[in-house]
Write a structure and sequence with these properties.
four-stranded antiparallel sheet; elongated
Length: about 425
């Protein structure tokens, strides 16, 4: 008969079961959880790679905003560092470890500062090429519902994947880097380039994203049945209240307005104005009666004839005065936005003035031949209709393509006559 293989000792069986349990789920016993948290903290400890990749990521994101290229921005996110130190930050809150919390938080702040510097430097260089159309800068400095959905998915997935012993969860890490680094880089670019409505909105959006992601990450750790100590519970509760306060303070003011949702920035919306009109007034024509000669009456003669004056009073009705008003409507010239770069043009309140919104290529505008030259650049006064509202502003003449009239085309205007009788 074949001999049976020797059975492993009981301690070996327990170790095998513990390893299988750790691979399948989070251990429930205190010893297993302590060992798991220690292992996770060791793998989440920040390394030199965090700072090197943050520096490269910040430089590429800054050039992506300068070129207004989604492809370059995507490349910058793909080379972003692994966001496991953020999970270490959550573990430090959960366990109530001040030293580990300080180390992970400072590492994250240095990483964000390196990305910020990259956007700031490229923003300063953008001043040499102004004016420019940079819609991506405004898009990533606002709170958007799709970005919040990506944030929630990335935060929960990164915590779950890392807690279940996945050493390098790259995909959820990219999602977290997307919602962390793009707003801070956009805000820094706006500060360096002087674009209105970008700084400090980008910084506030980053703070809102960080608070929401951290709150969801802590809740996920609780759902995974990682039970902290009493001090960790108190510290976690205080931190969750702090994150909730940040979200309440920032969520209301970070979402774009209705005008921004249609492609506008955060600057005030221009008010619609009436169109100019040409009024030609003719001098009043007064019709007066012709003077008439009245024969003098003669009285009967006596011995000494003497002339007796006779006075005749004639009262005529008041003369009617006719006023003729000729009103000529100005004929607008229609053009189409056709910018060679950026996919649109910036509409400003005055020539080279405050930014209003971005008009995408293909948008039809009305012009009335009113122009100004500022610093050798010609600006045209235009009117654009967006969502049923007419918005007035100034555009660079070089971004407007005018329609070519057909052969034998002659512009004509139809005068409008009105007769107003005088009282």
């Amino acid at each position: 008969m074949p001999m049976e293989p020797p059975r492993p000792p009981r301690e070996g069986v327990r170790n095998l079961r513990r390893r299988a349990t750790r691979r399948s789920s989070i251990p429930a016993d205190a010893e297993g959880q302590a060992s798991l948290i220690s292992d996770l903290s060791r793998r989440a400890y920040p390394s030199i790679e965090l700072f090197v990749f943050s520096l490269v990521c910040g430089a590429i994101l800054g050039f992506g905003f300068l070129l207004d290229s989604q492809t370059v921005l995507l490349l910058g996110i793909l080379v972003s560092p692994l966001m496991t130190p953020w999970v270490g930050f959550l573990l430090a809150i959960l366990t109530g470890s001040p030293r580990f919390l300080f180390e992970t938080l400072m590492a994250l702040l240095i990483s964000v500062a390196l990305v910020f510097i990259g956007g700031l430097l490229t923003g300063f260089s953008a001043r040499l090429f102004m004016p420019m159309t940079l819609p991506n800068v405004f898009i990533h400095s606002r709170l958007w519902i799709p970005a919040l959905v990506v944030l929630a998915i990335g935060a929960v997935t990164l915590v779950v994947s890392f807690a279940r012993s996945e050493s390098k969860p790259f995909l959820p890490s990219i999602l977290i880097a997307y919602v962390f680094y793009l707003p801070i880089s956009a805000g820094a670019f706006g500060l360096g380039s002087g674009l209105e409505g970008v700084w400090p909105q980008g910084l506030l959006v980053f703070a809102a994203h960080f608070a929401l992601a951290s709150a969801l990450g802590l809740i996920t750790l609780y759902i995974l049945r990682l039970h902290p100590s009493f001090g960790g519970k108190v510290f976690s509760g205080i931190t969750l209240l702090l994150f909730a306060g940040i979200l309440i303070a920032l969520m209301g003011s970070g979402f774009p307005s209705a005008a921004e949702a249609n492609g506008a920035s955060s600057t005030p919306t221009a008010q619609a104005s009436t169109l100019p009109s040409s009024t030609l007034s003719l001098p009043p024509t007064t019709i007066s009666p012709r003077p008439s000669s009245i024969p003098a009456a003669r009285s009967p003669t006596t011995d000494t004839p003497s002339p007796v004056p006779l006075t005749l009073n004639v009262t005529l009705p008041p003369a009617e005065t006719a006023t003729v008003t000729l009103t000529l409507q100005a004929t607008p010239i229609y053009g189409m936005i056709s910018a060679s770069e950026g996919g649109g043009a910036n509409l400003r309140q005055t020539a080279d003035g405050i930014y209003i919104l971005t008009l995408l290529n293909g948008t039809i505008v009305e012009t009335y031949s009113e122009s100004q030259v500022v610093n050798g650049v010609t600006w045209i006064h235009v009117y654009a209709t967006l969502s049923g509202q007419k918005i007035e502003g100034w555009l660079l003449e070089s971004v407007i393509a005018y329609a070519t009239p057909s052969p034998n085309f002659e512009a004509s205007s139809t005068p409008v006559f009105g007769v107003t009788p005088a009282p």
